[in-house]
What we know:
By secondary structure, the protein is mainly alpha-helical. Helix content is 69%, strand content 2%. The chain contains 11 helices and 2 strands, in the order E-E-H-H-H-H-H-H-H-H-H-H-H. A two-stranded antiparallel ribbon has the order 1-2. Strand 1 and strand 2 form a beta hairpin. Helix 4 runs antiparallel to helix 5, helix 6 runs antiparallel to helix 8 and helix 8 packs antiparallel against helix 10. The N terminus and C terminus are likely disordered.
Amino acid sequence: xxxxxxxxxxxxxxxxxxxxVVTDDRVDPEIDTExxxxxxxxxxxxxxxSGLIYSTLPVLVFVxxxxxxxxxxxxxxxxxxxxxxxxxxxxxxxxxxxAVSGFLGVGLCALIAQRVGEAKGFFLFxxxxxxxxxxxxxxxxxxxRPLVGVIWGALNGHGHRWRTDKRIRKLYxxxxxxxxxxxxxxxxxxxxxxDTDHTTWLAVARIGMGWPLTALALVVTVWAxxxxxxxxxxxxxxxTEPAPS
Length: 245
C-alpha cells in the first residue's frame, strides 16, 4: 500500500481522484527507474543523441557547398547526406522514423530553397515551424493544458487527471514554458538573420540553437516529470478518464 504522504485528494471541488503529491522528499526509486525507462524509449523514438547530431549534417554540408559550387549542387549534396544517414540507420537497424522524417524535411527545405532561388530559403521552413511550435505550446499554457503534461499523459496512460492538481500543473507549465522560449528564440534570431541575408550565420544559429537547446529543454522536461511522480500507467494504475471541464 502507498504511504499516506504519496497521495492526496485534489483540491479542485470538481475532482475526487487521488494524485501524486509534489513534495521536497526524495523521489521514489521505483518512480525514478520507471520514468527513466520511459524517457529512454522516447529518446530512442526521436533518434537518440546521435539522431540529434545527424540532423545538423545536411546543414553543415549545404552552406559551404553553396559557397563554392552554387545552390543546385548544395541542394543535391544536402539530399545526399540525408539519404546516406537513412541508409546508415537501415544498415545499423536503428529506428528509421527520425531518419525518414529528416530526409523528408531536408527535401522540403531544398524545394523551398530552389523555389526562392537563394540559399537562405533552405532555412525558411525551420524558421516558421519554430514560430508555430512556440505559439502552440504558449496557447496550451493559457488553456491550462500545458502540452508537456498532455503529451506525457498520452504516452504513459495517465490521461488528463493530473490537471486537477495545481502543483503538478505548474510543473508542466514550467516545462512547457521552456519549450516556448526555445522555439521563440529560434524564430526571433533566425528570422532576423534571414531578413538581413546572413546565410552563414543563419546556419550557425540553426546548429547552435538546435540540439543543444533541445537537450536543455529535455532536461527541464525530465525534471518536471520526475517531480510530478508520474509512473507509466501499468505501474501507477492510472486511468484515462477525461479531465473535468
